[in-house]
Structures are given as C-alpha cells and as structure tokens.
Design brief:
Blueprint (H helix, E strand, L loop, with lengths): L4 H10 L7 H12 L2 H18 E3 L6 E3 L18 E5 L2 H9 L6 E4 L17 H9 L4 E4 L5 H13 L6 E4 L15 H9 L2 E2 L1
Parallel strand pairs: 3-4, 3-5, 5-6
Antiparallel strand pairs: 1-2, 6-7
The chain binds zinc ion (ZN).
The site of zinc ion has 6 residues, from loops.
Length: about 200
C-alpha cells in the first residue's frame, strides 16, 4: 500500500467501529475498493447526507433530522401523553426496549455512561432530564442503564440529580445479568427486569 494514505486512513477509521479490529477493517476496505460503484459511491453519498441531516437532540438525546428543531414541547415526538420516562444509555437500548413492547412511555437517551472512555460528564444529557420531568409532569423515572459498573454508577448519578423532585425513581430488577447491556438482552429477560423493577 505504497503511499495509499487514503486506504490506511480508511482502515484506521473502520477499525474504530464496534466489533471490528484492524484485520476485519482491512477485509471491509478490500470489499469496498473492489466494489466502487455498488458500495463506495452510495456509501459516500449516504454518509455525507447523514452527517449533514441527522444529529442527536440535545434535550432528549434521540436521533432527529437537523431540519426539525426539537423543542421541549415536541421533544417527545409522540402525541400521546405519558407519565413515565425510561432513561437509557444509547439509542440502541431504546430500540431494544421498543421492539420488546414492554414499556409505554417516553425515552431519555443519556448518550453513554459516566466513566466510559473519553466520556465527559457534561456530554451526558442529565440536566435536560430534570427539565423534562418537571415539564411533562413525570411521575416515574425508570433507570434502565446496563448492569455494568459504569451503568450502575451512572444510575446513581442520575438518581442524585433528581433527588429534589418529588417523583418515583425505579431501577430495573436484579434479574439483569451482571455486565448485561440492555441492547443485548432477550425480550424475556427485559420483560421481567421491567416488571420487577424496584423503587430506589
Ligand atoms: Zn428531543
């Protein structure tokens, strides 16, 4: 790969993706350069569009089109009114919970955990959670962070940030396997963790 810094840079970027290392990154890049028209061209186009048009809402943390301003009033994206809000680390956790149909309510996506690498506490959407709780007259906040040290530290931090609000705070039940990330749980485990959630 003499002087092909583009390829080296691409391998470096792809190997940063979850579940991929330098070896699989090289395989992916090889596949890409062998399929310029079918893969590289449309991928470059859609990546540019996603970069330009999609971002995280700075209040609820969900993905939104940049053309829509996510104000407090339409932040929930749904007309139905709920009095529960489920706090998760990442949008993939929300997708898992939604697809298992165990929870009806709003979501709040923190955007990570407190001590995960490179994660600054200020990057987590914590203060906007309290604002939403007040504005939407939320009665219960369900902490659905992972059963990892970081996830539990984050849950404690959120609990502390909400302590002056007169609301019920619950946490998913112990049934959660230690080290379990919400997105990797099966529907049955998620269901029982929600059903048996404990007030903290
Ligand atoms: Zn929002």
């Amino acid at each position: 790969m003499n002087n092909l810094t583009e390829i080296e840079d691409l391998i470096k970027i792809i190997s940063k993706l979850p579940g991929l290392g330098p070896k699989s990154a090289k395989r992916i890049v090889l596949k890409l350069i062998n399929n310029r028209e079918e893969l590289i061209k449309p991928m470059a186009k859609i990546l540019a569009e996603v970069y330009k048009n999609v971002s995280r809402c700075t209040i609820c943390g969900t993905l939104k089109s940049n053309s829509i301003e996510c104000s407090y009033s339409d932040c929930n994206f749904i007309d139905e009114k709920f009095d529960k809000i489920c706090v998760v680390e990442n949008i993939s956790d929300q997708w898992s919970i939604e697809s298992s149909n165990i929870f009806k309510g709003y979501f709040h996506i923190l955007g990570g955990t407190i001590s995960s690498a490179g994660q600054n506490n200020e990057d987590l959407l914590v203060s906007s959670l309290a604002e939403r709780v007040k504005k939407d007259k939320i009665k219960e906040v369900i902490l659905a962070t992972s059963a990892t040290v970081e996830g539990q530290t984050t849950a404690y931090y959120i609990q502390d940030s909400l302590k002056n609000l007169n609301i019920k705070i619950t946490k998913l039940a112990q049934g959660l396997p230690v080290g379990g990330e919400i997105e990797s749980l099966d529907d049955g485990t998620l269901n029982s963790a929600f059903k048996n959630r404990k007030t903290i």
